[in-house]
Amino acid sequence: MRYLMFVKSDEETEAGALPTEQELADMTAFNERLVKAGVMIDGNGLAPTSEGARVLFDEHNTPIVVDGPFTKAKDLVAGYWLVEVSSREEAVEWACRAPLGPGGQIEIRRVLTDEDFGDSLTPELKEAEARMRDAEARRREELSR
């Protein structure tokens, strides 16, 4: 099962504060443990919301773009890990090992699979998804050369 572990933001990360050398070393060591265990798929820090935007859709499905920054830093995301583990409990165990320090917070969410969508995900839609994922994988492969 795949889980997305969101590192919650705070006032410092939203102000653009970057980790110290020691914090980066601690995070690198944690990431290396995830990789050695074979569970890490991806992970990154995110720029503050002052560099971002939100797209909201009104009652007529018209998109409305709202530029950051956004309020309530504790409800925002500062970074993430995408992991593949055997259970929610294993994802929680990994999150508990993260070197975030006092006040740090990680939200854990399971990534939905085709089976979660039941009959709504028709064979045609599954095929379209597979084609898109294959095309994206080929694009990334070409970029990495």
Automatic annotation (TrEMBL):
<dbReference type="InterPro" id="IPR005545">
    <property type="entry name" value="YCII"/>
</dbReference>
<dbReference type="Pfam" id="PF03795">
    <property type="entry name" value="YCII"/>
</dbReference>
<feature type="compositionally biased region" description="Basic and acidic residues">
    <location>
        <begin position="124"/>
        <end position="145"/>
    </location>
</feature>
<feature type="domain" description="YCII-related">
    <location>
        <begin position="1"/>
        <end position="112"/>
    </location>
</feature>
<feature type="region of interest" description="Disordered">
    <location>
        <begin position="119"/>
        <end position="145"/>
    </location>
</feature>
<comment type="similarity">
    <text>Belongs to the YciI family.</text>
</comment>
<dbReference type="InterPro" id="IPR011008">
    <property type="entry name" value="Dimeric_a/b-barrel"/>
</dbReference>
<protein>
    <submittedName>
        <fullName>Uncharacterized conserved protein</fullName>
    </submittedName>
</protein>
